[in-house]
Amino acid sequence: MTHMSSSRSLTQSTKTLLLYQHDLDNLGNNVHVVSCVPFNSLNESNKAMFYCPKEEFYVVITDQTAFVPEGEGQGSDGGLMRLIPDEQLQQDNEDADLPAMFTVTQVRTTADGVVLHLGEFGWGSFSRGDKVQLRVNPTFREMHSKLHSAGHILGLAVRCLASTLGEVVELEGQYYFGRSFVEYRGLIDEHHREAIEKAANDIVEEDLPIAIRWWTSEELGGKCSHFSHSVTVSEGELTRAVEFEGAGAYSCGGTHMPRTKDVGPIDILDISHENGTTKISFGLGSVIRIPMN
């Protein structure tokens, strides 16, 4: 396999266009390869972003992507990349090998906004300029979207009960299968658990539309219940937000379900306290079964 050095490819790569930011339903696109390098050739800071990669793994950068990187408290997408062969070359060579296939297992973003797709080739290889077809795993996307929407619904439920719960400030959320939570500065007593769960599931049952918005800093300040730590709002620029119509909104770069009822029942699993903070851990009643490889 031929490839350029990782230092050159990453420093010369422009910011990756994030297709999912504008179209959540798009799970596949044809894009172009910017670089394809062995994982072991990355610098240490980029290597550190990934969990337990195999030595034979590669990192593929494309000019745009439908794959969601890990971030915003949400796990990354997985799926496939398949080489789209040159039609003329295939016609000239009837014995051509099967198009290269790459399994994407983890996705991360560099500080410069370049998306790194980690995985391994089933067969073949990619070169700079190759046209490839992306296919996001719909099961994982749905799971992450349900959990992310559920976390924000839970946050809106706490906000609705502010007069009862007392003064708390939402800090962050994490939306991973088996370890999802929303964290607050301030103490929420365990005896509020049933009321919070009911308020969250009332929002679910209202079947409210969940819509992606692009708002000015003034609109964000007036409409959003919470600002993501990763969101920097510049004067005159639009920032991505998710609105639960009629209930509230969050600045957010993650993926979500179309409507609140699509999330299914939300279960509060635990309310714990540490150093003046409250962590509300939750799960979904409509568990998505993840196929094991």
TrEMBL record:
It comes from the Eukaryota. One of its GO terms (biological process) is alanyl-tRNA aminoacylation. Gene3D superfamilies: 2.40.30.130, Threonyl-trna Synthetase, Chain A, domain 2. One of its GO terms (molecular function) is nucleic acid binding. Residues 1-270 form the Alanyl-transfer RNA synthetases family profile domain. This is Alanyl-transfer RNA synthetases family profile domain-containing protein.
